[in-house]
Design goal:
Radius of gyration: 19 Å
Strand order of the largest sheet: 1-5-2-3-4
Number of strands: 5
Helix content: 40-55%
Length: 218
């Protein structure tokens, strides 16, 4: 459920503990009072993805340490077979050192806290506004391995696909599109990869049809 106003981090941490204990599959989208966004994905209660500036979980830790209040929303998602990026108890201990974390105490190890305390890196907030694909773009990438698609076309594909996916996946669409394009060799394969992340089958099918109509034979 979306939270309409800023709340204490304790409330967010309580929700994370519920996700872990309930072995839930879903996304937490977090906005901090320092105007930073954090996306966390859980599969069977395990923290399997993190995105804030980069995919390095320590960036998410740093941002959550620096803020005082948060807004957040939670959206169910399909389960995924992916190793956890960090044990959730360790994650909570790093962002809330004085909190009551259930289970045995664990060390972050590997310099995690030191990494989390490093200076923040700049992040691009540029957003692209597009209508439908311009004529010829789909043909330009047709039958091509994605590694051969360069520069503006590559960026155009990513942002156009993100616009479509956002209708079905919400604010996590950008992260998932980036991941799908990295892990597949064609736009069609990326579309199928994204469809798996949509828990409702009817919505997944609708996304697949809409996206393929914009990228025919890509």
């Amino acid at each position: 459920m979306a939270i309409g106003q800023f709340v204490s981090k304790a409330e967010l941490f309580s929700r994370i503990k519920q996700i872990v204990s309930g072995q839930e599959n879903g996304f937490l989208t977090i906005l901090t009072d320092t105007k930073r966004s954090v996306l966390l994905r859980f599969s069977a209660g395990k923290l399997t993805q993190s995105h804030c500036r980069t995919k390095d979980v320590n960036d998410s830790i740093q941002v959550l340490i620096e803020c005082s209040l948060v807004k957040y929303s939670y959206a169910p998602a399909a389960a995924e077979n992916r190793p956890e990026v960090m044990p959730t108890e360790t994650f909570l201990q790093l962002v809330d050192p004085g909190g009551d974390v259930s289970g045995s105490a664990m060390s972050a190890g590997g310099g995690g806290f030191e990494q989390a305390a490093r200076a923040s890196r700049p992040v691009s907030t540029e957003q692209f506004q597009m209508d439908d694909l311009i004529p010829g773009v789909a043909q330009a990438i047709s039958s091509s391995n994605r590694s051969s698609v360069h520069g503006g076309i590559d960026e155009f594909i990513s942002n156009a696909l993100t616009r479509i996916a956002a209708e079905y996946l919400g604010p996590v669409a950008g992260m998932l599109v980036e991941e799908a394009l990295e892990q597949t060799s064609s736009v069609t394969q990326a579309i199928d990869h994204l469809a798996v992340s949509i828990p409702d089958q009817a919505q997944a099918d609708a996304f697949r049809v809409e996206a393929r109509s914009k990228f025919p034979d890509a």
